[in-house]
């Protein structure tokens, strides 16, 4: 008698009343295997009887696994009765309907597709930290001028006719710059070009009595140049590999939004924070097993719960991001008997970022509203001026109304984008300042009187060399964090500085009557632009100078901690041999930490700690001198701010004096 072939469908004959159900389960097996959601090598129910996972969904997966195993055994002609009995028992005990099972399948497939979509964006291109090995961000003027020319040719000269020329430098370049293709941004860019070229054609072919070259047309020209600068700054931070990929491959919308438009950056989503921290870790070649810290005292329950939540979020992010490596355990494990906890650097950074975002949510909203209001007011200056002169018919002719509307629209659109970049760049800088100050709190055993702000996290174990190393790595990541965005903002502010210098020269020429052909409305616009631009630049300089000043603060704190450790070396024998008791909490805690080290004597541990502090202080001094916050390519300091304030104050006083004499 021949051995029957037990395929999935032939198993139906075992229990006819469940035949339809088994066929549906067989279909589920096929779907699960298709999407890689079923591991047929996992344990069967009897093999995993100790497992506590008895949810309906786990029961379904177990059942499907058994079916797949039966099918696989049938292919090898070794399907035995034991597996059939297991299958019968599972089928009889199952209380789940086919509808519920298909809902589980739909949920799993949806998550699988989301992971595939996310990884399709990040795994197979040079914009992925695991593929691209160049992690240091820098502003490349070669790419800046190249892409400035591309945008200038498109917006000012040729429009869509420039696409074939641009594609000579890369077959996908015009598509990635969104000069070609069908998308909202590409249509917007074409409309902007069309409005600009039409306004110029109308101005030079029609007689204009109200619209002048100095006002409306200069506005349009200035806006086009500004647009070219802003867009070119996006590409100036790319390295050679990224640029080559940009030329040869069409980017997906997700990559384009995240890389070119920084989608999610201002809101600091968990995936953005994780990838930015990963980028910084690889930039400094940081071993993740050293990226841990311990606190000197047990954190408050709400603080510990907050950090635990960040840890859970990190796990979720990494589960959905295939290019991320496994997080290695710390080099030194905490002692379970003392219930000590150790925290990953990501949790610390995310907690500081989330705290700042939450506390300054209203401030961020105020900055955005201010940018919108100023952009609207600035765009309406010519219209308000004309309507005050001729209330009934400010522009007189239809074609002049068209030019006026185009000028107003362009000014509002570009000023809004530029101002949002500037104010959010300032917000980004103040966040970095907040994080650096909080890191200063974390190494200070005593309250810092010169920083009037709330301390978010406890002081770290300053007598643990591994924790001090972890703090140093977190500090370095904090300074490098968001470098690509920061470089683009610095590029914009550099352009803003050049704009300010040019505006001041024109205003001085007018004030001293060296040139008298400037129109009044043109000068009014220039005064408004100069005042607002100076305010933005000085605000960023102040924040940058404060960031660089934190280096000095952290250096002094580390030296103070080193002094405490040196003092311990003087009194350690009294503590150990004569049983002295200190009323100083820091000394008592330090002695407790030193005595925990069984491998070394307290004296050896003190000497080792002093050597480690010397190393970290030298590293901090190096970063202070070579990796400070810069603007216009210069290290920002309060001395620089004072000199700039005196210079601009002198110019402003001179101009005001001349204007007073004139009127």
TrEMBL record:
It comes from the Eukaryota. This is Transmembrane protein, putative. The chain crosses the membrane at residues 143-166, 187-205, 217-237, 366-389, 401-427, 489-509, 521-543. Keywords: Membrane, Transmembrane, Transmembrane helix.
